[in-house]
């Protein structure tokens, strides 16, 4: 009977230990995904719609990115701040920004140049930059 309990204890411990690497790997994969989802030309400029998903275990109170807008010829048109506001953990958010006096077809690329503000009570200062994943579902390239 004692050997049966020893076996069950050993099997339980082995199961517990085998789950640790998966948990650790999930922590390493924590990231912030920002996807340019749509670009719509308006009379006064280009309306950009971004989908943001915070993959960190806790929310981000405020995320502001310094971005560079390049024209279709690849030249810098302007530097601007995009304020994504609060980004709760594991919940998608859509944020829209108007790029004034520029049509969407004239935007060649958006560079996420750096983080201006990243506030989270439980995450480090680099939570908005470390593991930042940038994607685009439009003809406009998004890099960082």
TrEMBL record:
<feature type="signal peptide">
    <location>
        <begin position="1"/>
        <end position="24"/>
    </location>
</feature>
<keyword id="KW-0732">Signal</keyword>
<protein>
    <recommendedName>
        <fullName>Tat pathway signal sequence domain protein</fullName>
    </recommendedName>
</protein>
